[in-house]
């Protein structure tokens, strides 16, 4: 059984930065695609960013391009989302997702979510 635990969310002001982490246990993230999704109140869950497997190419939704960076550390079995220049519209619960093999977007396993609130 794979467990994903997100952390790093919080309350920040517009323009601030946060780094989200997602630690996996139960299996290695090698051979898996990984992604971050988010869900704002009253809205559907949306894809934010992902790392494909194999190859490691990264994908971003247009609204976060140039501000967010996804990365992975296989040795730590962890995927990160560096979020810079945060905007109020980035407020949401952020979820980590892992997909085995080339399945895209990843969605075999999900974390419990971490709240990000951007407000002045």
Radius of gyration: 13 Å
What's the shape? Answer: globular
Mean pLDDT: 95
Distance between the termini: 40 Å
The helix content, as a percent range, equals under 10%
Per DSSP, what share of the residues sits in E-state strands of 2 or more residues?
A: over 45%
Secondary structure topology:
Layout: E1 3-7, E2 10-12, E3 18-25, E4 32-39, E5 46-51, E6 58-60, E7 68-73, E8 78-83, E9 92-100, E10 109-110, E11 114-118
Parallel strand pairs: 2-11
Antiparallel strand pairs: 1-3, 3-8, 4-5, 4-9, 5-6, 7-8, 9-10, 9-11
Write a brief structural summary:
The chain has no helices and eleven strands. It has 120 residues and is mainly β.
Please provide a written account of the structure:
The protein is mostly beta strands and 120 residues long. β4 and β5 form a beta hairpin. It starts with a strand and ends with a strand. 32% of the residues are buried. The model has no long low-confidence stretch (mean pLDDT 95).
Features:
seven-stranded mixed β-sheet, 51% strand, four-stranded antiparallel β-sheet, 120 residues, mainly beta, 0% helix
């Amino acid at each position: 059984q794979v467990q994903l635990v997100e952390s790093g969310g919080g309350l920040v002001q517009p323009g601030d930065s946060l780094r989200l982490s997602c630690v996996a246990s139960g299996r290695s993230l090698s051979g898996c695609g990984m992604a971050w999704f988010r869900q704002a109140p009253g809205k559907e869950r949306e894809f934010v960013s992902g790392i494909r497997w194999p190859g490691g190419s990264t994908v971003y939704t247009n609204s976060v391009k140039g501000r967010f960076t996804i990365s992975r550390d296989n040795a730590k079995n962890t995927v990160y989302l560096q979020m810079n220049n945060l905007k109020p519209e980035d407020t949401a619960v952020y979820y980590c997702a892992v997909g085995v093999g080339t399945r895209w977007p990843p969605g075999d396993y999900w974390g419990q979510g971490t709240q990000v609130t951007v407000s002045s």
